[in-house]
Design a protein that fits this description.
Helices cover 44% and strands 12% of the residues. With 350 residues, the chain is of the alpha/beta class. It folds into 2 domains: 104 residues, Rossmann fold (3-Layer(aba) Sandwich), CATH 3.40.50; 203 residues, Glycogen Phosphorylase B (Rossmann fold). The chain is globular. The mean pLDDT is 95.
Length: 350
């Protein structure tokens, strides 16, 4: 793993903490499992490490998708792992990165690599789509009622107990609503959003789990609802009830999938302007009306700028909000849909 997490019945370990023998054993076992499914035209390996070495050991023709997680958390500053990754990428037919930012990180961590192609992650635009508010609320509450029991919210990977009633009460009025969904970690910058909301006439739904939750709840303004972890089946409806989705990360992001999903759902994203998130902002700006293009992003780490942008965004007229929602959706359709991404993934092999 690149970031330690908790899994039932499994003791997770960081990649740099594995011995060379353990790494070799991992590659050997996974390559053997992969070979049982060959032959194939191409093996698509996820992550430089350990996906690249596994694909190489299979003996098949392969491509590798590089992510910020292994590069930043495991390989950067580790000469041995960087060399191993460089060897795997040198033998690949193609290397895919989700953004120009990750292309630069690959160069910094691994060194120059040929045959690198920038292809963003894809969004299921049929699942993440705009909805009528009344129908979206009914669907969200129906999904929440289907949630498994979670007494005392003991399982952080499940939705909080009683979410259906809490969401119904919280969303019954149509006040301006902001959504954050993602991990509750310091690096994700949720504390900046809560600071920005302190003097805004808006309420917020904070979705996710993580070690930072208790501290965030203590700092949250009164009209803030924490839901715990939610699944796509909840989020596709929740976004239809929000006026903005904020991605306030203060750590480099490979892309910004949550922003692309929000855009596809017609919920205008407001992102910190850095790394892969900046490319999301640029995609939105290409579709937004000129006078509102600055509402795609805010200065990284600047709660005051975030507050000012949110205040403008939430004060737009219903007609202006509808125009932004349509523009955000158009950006997702043209740039981040599965169809457009699939064409770009296949193009190097034609």
């Amino acid at each position: 793993m690149f970031v330690l997490d908790r899994y039932e019945g499994l003791e997770a370990r960081l990649l740099p903490d594995l011995t060379p023998e353990e790494r070799e054993r991992y590659v050997e076992l996974n390559a053997e499992a992969l070979q049982r499914h060959l032959p194939a035209d191409l093996v698509f390996a996820n992550h430089v490490l350990l996906g690249g070495p596994v694909a190489a050991a299979s003996g098949a023709r392969y491509a590798v998708k590089a992510h910020g997680s292994e590069l930043e958390y495991s390989m950067r500053g580790n000469a041995e792992l960087s060399a191993w990754g460089r060897e795997a990428l040198a033998r690949a037919e193609a290397v895919f990165v989700g953004s120009a930012h990750i292309r630069r990180v690959v160069e910094e961590v691994v060194g120059h690599v040929d045959r690198v192609h920038e292809v963003p992650p894809g969004v299921d635009v049929d699942e993440w789509r705009p909805q009528v508010r009344k129908q979206a609320l009914a669907a969200l509450l129906e999904e929440a009622r289907r949630d498994p029991p979670n007494p005392g919210n003991a399982n952080e990977r499940l939705p909080d107990e009683g979410n259906a009633d809490r969401l119904a009460a919280f969303l019954e009025t149509e006040e301006p609503t902001v959504v954050y969904f993602g991990k509750l970690l310091r690096n994700k910058g949720v504390h900046l959003l809560l600071e920005a909301l302190q003097r805004l006439e808006a309420k917020a739904v904070i979705v996710g789990f993580g070690d930072y939750r208790a501290e965030l709840e203590a700092a949250a303004p009164p009209r803030t609802l924490f839901t715990g972890a939610l699944e796509h089946r909840h989020l596709v409806h929740l976004l239809a009830l929000a006026d903005a989705a904020v991605v306030p990360s203060i750590f480099p992001e490979a892309f910004g999938m949550v922003a692309a999903e929000a855009a596809s759902a017609g919920c205008p994203p407001l992102v910190a302007r850095h790394s892969g998130l900046e490319e999301i902002a640029e995609g939105l700006e290409a579709e937004y009306p000129p006078e509102q293009r600055d509402l795609t992003s805010f200065q990284t780490g600047d709660a005051n700028d975030l507050r000012a942008k949110l205040e403008r965004l939430l004060s737009l007229s219903p007609q202006e909000r509808a125009r932004l929602a349509e523009a955000a959706r158009n950006a997702a359709l043209s740039r981040w849909s599965w169809r457009s991404v699939a064409r770009r993934l296949l193009s190097p092999f034609h």
